[in-house]
Design goal:
265 residues, alpha/beta, UDP N-Acetylglucosamine Acyltransferase, domain 1, 11-stranded mixed sheet, 9-stranded parallel sheet, 4 helices, 28 strands, 18% helix
Length: 265
Amino acid sequence: MAAAQIHPTAIVAPGAVLEEGVTIGPYSIIGAHVHLGAGTRVGEHCVIDGHTTVGPNSHFYRFCSIGGIPQDKKYAGEETALTIGAGNTFREFVTVNTGTAQDVGTTRLGDDNWVMAYVHIAHDCQIGNHTVIANSVQLAGHIHIGDWAILGGLSAVHQFVHIGAHVMIGGTSSVRQDVPPYMIGAGDSFRPIGINSEGLSRRGFTEQDIQVLREAYKILYRRKLKIDQAIEALLALQTEHPAERAAVQALVEFLQASDRGIARP
């Protein structure tokens, strides 16, 4: 693979690590503690700063601001970090901040995430793999997002909210409580309306998996059960459908770990 290509107008601080095939566009700035993986492309007028590590083959379009310090008044200059996996895309004007000492100290994104224009990802967010975060989504601090989640444009997510895997959130939603795996919905506040069956089918879930998860949705949202009661009913559902146990278990574990309470219709 070819050596890194740096435009003459770009500034790369001493100490930055640029692996093979990295390209840095005009007027971009790369900080001293940045490590860019092989094949990563940085467009025009980007700033990548802080203790930021980026895996291979990511692409930052023009005017991204990556690795800036947290927008948190408690931040006092601690050495915190941002870790980004492989194959991620960041469109124009995306901002991603490093973590804080009050949490794990590192903001993380996994692999193959598609982050569209004007998205803000605040300090200590933990984002999985294969997510789609559409234009102008605003993520406050300490948010967790599971694999394959999709967040519609102009949505806002409250700090400390957890969003489960395979969730689909419609545009302009306001998400203030946890959203369990597999749900689809929208609104201000966000309201689930069912299971993301189309997305699950595309990702290899069987028709029987989806049918059992529809029943799980009814247990959680139609029977007016308390969370502890719903968990008991979901455990019983697993016993009735052992082949689909793993799909339901992800929902059970999410509910058991939820601190904010879940979004309700």
